[in-house]
Amino acid sequence: MPATHHTASTPAADVLICEVGPRDGLQNIARCMPTAAKQAWIDALHGAGLREIEVGSFVPPALLPQMADCAEIVRHARSRPGLTVVALVPNLRGAEAALAAGVHKLTLPVSASTAHSLANVRKTPAQMLAELRSIAALRAERAPQVGIEVGLSTAFGCTLQGAVDEDEVVRLAELAVQAGADEVGLSDTTGMADPERVRRLFLRLRAAIGKHAGAAHLHNTRGLGLANCLAAWDAGVRTFDSSQGGLGGCPFAPGASGNVVTEDLVFMFESMGVATGVDLHGLAAARSALLAGLPGEAVYGMTVDAGLPPHFVYADGRRPPAHTLAGAGR
Ligand code: ZN
Questions:
Q1: What is the pLDDT of residues 186-244, one digit of tens each?
Q2: Distance from Cα 30 to the centre of ligand 1, integer Å
Q3: Which residues pair with 151 in a beta bridge?
Q4: In a domain, 244, yes or no
Q5: What is the DSSP string of 41-74?
Q6: CATH number, position 184
């Protein structure tokens, strides 16, 4: 299993929220956030209590210039106490760069849809599993403490292929564990999941690979993001990917966020009495840091718009300093 970097001072949390905005968000926005602004944003996210952040991806700068400073961002993020620094890698070359930069965890996307896999990484799912075996061998040799996570993308349906067979998703998860993944999560890349399918597939995942069952990466493309997160929670999932302001996640419709909005996810769990370790006013400050680096960028989140209910208390009994989240901006 991947190393954890939680310190004794980290408050106990019932769920782990992995903030993916600096990777999933920024790589879906054409303009580049300046390196210093990314660092300030990551610092603010960490200051809000987030303890796992996907900070970038190790891909050729010619393909994604937004990620060209990924090694520098990783080195900076490593200075934040108690933070697990995650980076996406599409292949062995990316993994070499990520390990050299000092990531705590690698995440490799493996598409459950062959059509999506060929379009996205020009490899079949089987070829991606071969890549995973090479990455696991490299990790064993160079950095055995580093975790390897596989995110099974298009696990709930694909815009190119249409329906994705659930048996195939479970089979790929088993093969990924055999190939060296510590954790395998499921991603609703195209926003096609519904709560019943989420519950069923995560229960099947856990039955198949047990403790290796990983994060829920769910999108809000059609408004079901939080409902799907709750269904995953009911199925025993305790790690959730989300993005500040719903940034990224390839939204298909104007006015809809792509990724589940971190602010709304934290509000949902804390209201239910499920501790996240994340502070909503801290997230509002982080949102300001995000917008300082990307002025005028569209961000989402109903909790920020509405503010907190006047009687709101966190799961651990703390009261917020104010029910408004003013200054957070849109
Ligand atoms: Zn996403």
A1: 999 989 999 999 999 999 999 999 999 999 999 999 999 999 999 999 999 999 999 99
A2: 16
A3: 109, 185
A4: yes
A5: HHHHHHHTT--EEEEEE---TTT-GGGTTHHHHH
A6: 3.20.20.70
